[in-house]
Amino acid sequence: FVKFANIEEDTPSYHRRYDFFVSRFSAMCHSCDHDPEIQNEIRIAGIRGIQGVVRKTVNDELRATIWEPQHMDKIVPSLLFNMHKIEDIDSRIGPPSSPTGGEKEENPALLAENCFRELLGRATYGNMNNAVRPVFAHLDHHRLWDPNEFAVSCFKIIMYSIQAQYSHHVIQEILGHLDVRKRDSPRVRAGIIQVLLEAVAIAAKGSIGPTVLEVFNTLLKHLRISVDFELGDRRSSAGSATFSTSSKESDERIVQNAIIQTIGFFGSNLPDYQRSEIMMFIMGKVPVFGTSQSLDTSHLGDLGTRRIQIMLLRSLLMVTSGYKATTITNALPPPFLDPLLSPSLMEDSELRQLVLEILHNLIDRHDNRAKLRGIRIIPDVSDLKIKRDKISRQDVSFMKKHGQQLYRHIYLGCKEEDNVQKNFELLFTSLALITIELANEEVVIDLIRLAIALQDLAIINEDNLPMFNRCGVMALVAAYLNFLSQMIAVPAFCQHVSKVIETRSLEASYFLPETIFKDKCNLPKSLEKHEKNLFFLTNKIAESLGGSGYSVERLSVPYVPQVTDEDRLSRRKSIVDTVSIQVDILPGNNTEDKVDNTEEITFEALKKAIDNNGLEEQEKEKRRLVIEKFQKAPFEEIAAQCETKANLLHDRLAQILELTIRPPPSPSGTMTITAGHAHYQSVPVYEMKFPDLCVY
């Protein structure tokens, strides 16, 4: 039959069918003769027969019946059955090998593998799926997903054998099979996901086509399912902690880690333009309070939502690893930055750590982060050999628009009671990276204001932080100002910082990172009694920087984080409670000017106070209408309405103040105003667009 199969025919024979041969040769591949030698010979003969059928029929498009499912369901499992008998699995991994003729003849596994490679290499767009689906059936039937070494090797052979443009077909089939087996044991699902990882690793080097978002969408869906299963098992076993339940939970963690690893590996191999889209896609799935997500986590509760947040942020961390954006705006666009810095992602210490690490991946474009690892007083920053470029115009614009968001996140991150050493280390690295990558003179001043505000936060302690946290913040400020002063290289500033650090090392070493983050550190009872020479002083810093040409006027203005709408709606403690609110009171000695602010409490007043949401909506609608009017209405109409209002206001003010106004002879002259018995003359008049509306 093999000799016959090798004969090249000029004209095809349409009436010839090979159903019988496929059935017989497939049966021979499964021979179980008692004599091992005879069994081996029969299996080799069956494999060579299948190879002959493939060669005889596969190239003739008019006789494509060999690709029909009833034939593939016999041929592919027969080849896999013999491939599975080999002991050395690693010999099948990689691109097609070329064993010697003697090995081909004697080893059914190698012969079956070469036949399998040849079959897949001849597969076209229309029949690729028919060749791959029997592989899943074989692996399911023989339970080869756990352990999954053979499954991984099979799909490596498939991915290296098929034409590169068909890779996405195989990935789609794996994703579809994962959906089919979503109710199976965690280890089976983890095995399928690891196979997907290997397939993606090979396909990512070429063209994956339209399946990029589908891969991520399916993986994120299974991540949610896995968390759901884990929490369901935990709830069902509440009060009866058994070994099997804890084992199943750990198995679900294996599934979750496999998904994260696959997402990260796939994302890190994508080109930058696709990776930024995937970052936005994953961030859109993270449950953030006050926004809508496509992943439904409402039934998971707070614990489940937190697990999903951690898993997705870990995935995002892997995707952003190694990402180098030309400008920071490309790396941190507002639709990505806003949810990433959301207060609802600050409720947990681990979440805050992940957010900061993601920021580091995106901000650090010169690989300086490894040099900054660990919070410490760096004696000589020049020894770190930090790489940096001149700040671009786009980066300056980004800091003007979004710098306050970054400062605010760092400030609030320092106030959290559950901070541990790693949190302070990551906060220090964040400040240092902003200094290296994004700091011009204006940003430097803002960073110093932020550092002084953190120092005041620890000293005043309005939030009743534990003493470890207060000392940790003081150590963070010391480490950062030491770094900043050497980076901008202002001698007087460096001298002040060095003097404070030297004084602390002698009198209050718990204000330095090398001491406070040791296992056993004696903490002070209070910080109020410490001398000023232990603190960084704003006036000293202003003097030192002012002499070097810095604009230090803003240093006298204390840093206060911005209050956002999300803070008011967030489940966390509102920032409004912690920010000092300054109220300007107009001085007045005349008792007649004082107004009684007491108001009678009625049902209507209470209803009005409670219904704040309705009022906010009304205000928003009013603002929208005003904006729309000024955008669309004719200018003449707007001018006429403003002039009418100005005249009404003018007349009303004159009535209230009993003013008598004599117009000046010229617009730039003076006028006389009489208010009661007082006379004011020679008051300058400033001409405006509308003559009747003047500023006195």
From TrEMBL:
GO biological process, any: protein localization to plasma membrane
Superkingdom to which the source organism belongs: Eukaryota
A GO CC term assigned to this protein in UniProt: plasma membrane
The name this protein goes by in its record: EFR3A protein
Species of the source: Pampusana beccarii
